[in-house]
Amino acid sequence: MRLPWRHPLLVPVVLCALAVLAARPTDAAEKRRDGVDPGISAQVARLYEDAAVATQQYEKGRQEAEAQRVQAQRLEALLDRERRDIAVLHEDLGRIARTQYRDGGGLPLTAQIILAGSPEELMRGQQVFSQANLAVNNSIEKSRRAEERLAKDEAKAVAAWQSLEKRKTELAALKTDIEQKLEEARRQLQGQADASVAAGACRGAVRLDQPPTQVVGGWVAPVETYALSAGFGSGGSRWANRHTGQDFAVPIGTPVRAVGAGRVVKVSCGGPFGIEIVIEQAGGYYTQYAHLAAVAVDQGERVVPGQWIGQSGTSGNSTGPHLHFEVRVTPELGSAVDPVPWLAARGVPLG
Fold first, then answer.
1. pLDDT per position as a tens digit, 129-186
2. Cα–Cα distance, 40 to 185 (Å, whole number)
3. In sequence order, which ranges of the chain are alpha helices (DSSP H)?
4. Using CA atoms, how far apart are residues 87 and 153, in angstroms rounded to an integer?
5. Which residues touch 77 (CB under 8 Å, ≥6 apart)?
6. How many other CB atoms sit within 10 Å of the CB of residue 192?
7. Which residues make Cβ contacts (< 8 Å) with residue 222, sequence separation at least 6?
């Protein structure tokens, strides 16, 4: 039986990620130290962590699955070789049988005695007969063992492909579950942000459990993973004049980080920037983070480089989820400088 060939499968082990999801506390169990429920903001941040764990499992599992795919291919090559060996054995059996028949090996013993010209000829005939029978028996036994080995190896190959298929199904289910939960949480988070902007009043800082971060050089990009979109000074129908910052295209709920140490001088939830934060940085500069979905700091608070200060969104005059980031020489609009070379001068090239 020849196994149907499969396309290479690059699918990871996801049990670790499943365990992480199962171990997550419920929203009701998560309370801020001041007793306020962090609600959907914490849920989105938590789901981003789950997605990060799943991504790590993707890569780890991809490598394991690739090794398993290579092993399955080796089994398939072994099966082909064993099939060829069995075909040779069958051919040898046929040849031996034909030779034995031509040499009289198929005659009954009585007929061989009658037809033998002398005792020596009879002895030689019996010796040839015995050797032919031994060769036939050995070939049959060798063929039987080869066929048994082939059957076992075919079963191993089938099991290997079935294991890969199972992993693929588990991964697809996990990925779909995370995506659905994250999309619904993002929708709710943005709904709360839009309500706050419409009311012109922030809901207050939501303290998010941030994983430990290590900042080298004292400065970071405002988001960890991103695609650059509208740049400083670009024109278009969306702005009355020129674009005053650098946009980072990121999904709703992405953690937004303070680019450096500083003090929060403004938290606002109305106007064209929607929910925004302005931080006073060292050297007399100010950084603005706009179109947020939630804030995680209060006005007057000190922040450190890389600290989560909010979550990205599409509040205010925004055409889609992104972070609008500005560098200013005053806290107010109209004093912006190009943030890309400003960050690059501090060891944070954007790309």
1. 565 566 667 767 776 777 777 777 777 777 877 877 787 777 777 777 878 888 888 8
2. 6
3. 15-23, 39-102, 109-115, 119-199, 339-344
4. 17
5. none
6. 18
7. 248, 256, 257, 258, 259, 287, 289, 323, 325
| 11 and 65 Cβ atoms separated by less than 8 Å | yes
Inter-residue contact 263 to 301 (CB < 8 Å): yes
C-alpha to C-alpha distance for 140 and 19, rounded to whole angstroms: 53
DSSP classification of residue 322: B
pLDDT tens across 245-255, in order?
A: 999 999 999 99
Alpha-carbon distances of 337 from 14, 45, 86, 137, 326, rounded to whole Å: 46, 31, 78, 91, 8
Q: Which residues contact 266 (CB under 8 A, 6 or more apart)?
A: 276, 277, 278, 299, 331
User: Does the reported pTM lie above 0.90?
Assistant: no
In degrees, rounded to 5, the angle at the alpha carbon of residue 41 between the alpha carbons of residues 40 and 47 is 85
Q: What are the residue ranges of helices labelled H in 200-268?
A: none
Alpha carbon 54 to its chain's center: 6
Which pair of structure tokens corresponds to residue 221? 């990009």
Backbone angles phi, psi at 143, to 5 degrees: -65, -40
